[in-house]
Amino acid sequence: MPFPLSVEQKQTVFWVAVWGAFWLLLLALGPILTPFLAAAIIAYALNPGVDRLERVRLGRVGVPRALAVVIVVVLFLATIMALGLIVAPVLQREIPLLQAQIPAFMAKANDTLGPRLREMGINVPTDSAGIKELMTQQLASSGDEIWRSLLTWGRAGGTAVLGWLFIVLLVPVLLFYLLLDWHKVIARIADCVPRRYIGRTIAMAEEVDSLLAQYLRGQLLVMLVLAVYYSVSLMIAGFDVALPVGILTGLLVFIPYLGFGLGLVLALIAAVLQFTDWSGLIAVAIIYGSGQVIEGFFLTPRLVGERIGLNPLAVIFALLAFGQLFGFVGVLLALPASAILMVAFKHLRRHYLSSSFYNA
Predict the structure, then answer these.
(1) In the prediction, which pLDDT does 139 show?
(2) For 136-173, how does the pLDDT look when each residue is reduced to its tens digit (9 = 90+)?
(3) Under a CB-based contact definition with an 8 Å cutoff, are residues 68 and 52 in contact?
(4) Most distant CA pair in the chain, distance
(5) Which of 19, 159, 174, 263: CA 20 to 30 A from 144?
(6) Are 13 and 5 in contact (CB under 8 A)?
(7) Given this model, what pLDDT does residue 249 score?
């Protein structure tokens, strides 16, 4: 015969079920929640600037919060546009040079690989004329399949572009309203916490806030130092695109692995296009290899330290997990979100080790 539940136990079961259903709904709506999550993280980072600007006195009155929010959001969007203007000249300069180098590269590949392939009995055209003829034959024999594939890709690509455009346009709007009502939103979230847990919850929130603030400050310093290092090093090595590639590499460090890889690819392309010998590639290898050593052994331990406490395997798992749940925005937010989860896990582990279930 089952034991009857008290009123308090019934309420606990009910609200646990409600919150469980709520979190399952959030997981199911992960792709839709991406702009809201991105706007919330950005608002968290920008809110101290809004609060500080709001405290500025203009005569006898302070700056209205709405005006402070507008100023901070405009400065943030201007910074993003400035980064785009940094990348655009690099692409505008390197893509035409890459197109001009393709015939010479094909000729060199034909002279190098053609004889060896023929010695191995492989008759594959490696010159530009032969590859062009081979592609023409393939297009003629499989034109219908290629056309259907292009149509399918176009529909999927168009949907993806519309989705990204929607996110890009929606995030600034969400960011404005979140910053405008930030303290009200935080107060409402705090009001939803059961009163018996409010003390622990506030303590955990303050710990997370301190951890993320230290992490963000340290990460910004790492990005600034690396942007200066890569720009100056590439400039000394004689790269024409040293400044934009160096700045871009330094600023993309906040995306683990991906940011460094993109900067390295841009530098390698610049080396291949600008230098006729191996000196450019050797310079890139030395500069970027030294940059990784400086970042991994000096900058990150000293400026960011062990504040997050994630080892490389946990970092890779966090990137894959948040990327699967929230797409590319999840990759950007993986480490800060992991820091929050680490604090929650630490408190949960402490509670578990002190429980009668563990010590019995």
Answers:
(1) 47
(2) 555 455 545 555 655 565 555 556 566 667 777 888 88
(3) no
(4) 88
(5) 159
(6) yes
(7) 84
Burial of 275 (0-12, 13-18, 19+ CB in 10 A): middle
Place of tokens 């191996």: 278
Tokens of residue 183, six digits: 């303290």
| Predicted TM-score of the model (pTM) | 0.65
Angle at 280 (CA atoms; ends 275, 284), nearest 5 degrees: 150
pLDDT in tens, 331-346: 667 777 777 777 777 7
Q: Closest Cα to residue 310, out of 280, 341, 331, 333?
A: 341
61, β-bridge pairs: 58
CB under 8 Å to 352, separation ≥6 — which residues?
358
Residues 6+ apart with CB under 8 A from 230: 245, 246, 247, 249, 250, 263, 287, 288, 291
Give the Cα-Cα-Cα angle 170, 177, 340 (nearest 5 degrees). 85
Q: Kindly tell me the burial class for residue 319, based on how many C-beta atoms sit within 10 Å of its own C-beta (0-12, 13-18, 19 or more).
A: buried
Say how far apart CA 49 and CA 53 lie, in whole Å.
Answer: 6
Instruction: Return phi, psi of residue 62, to 5°.
Output: -90, 175
Q: Which two tokens stand for residue 289?
A: 């290899």
**Count, residues in the chain:** 360
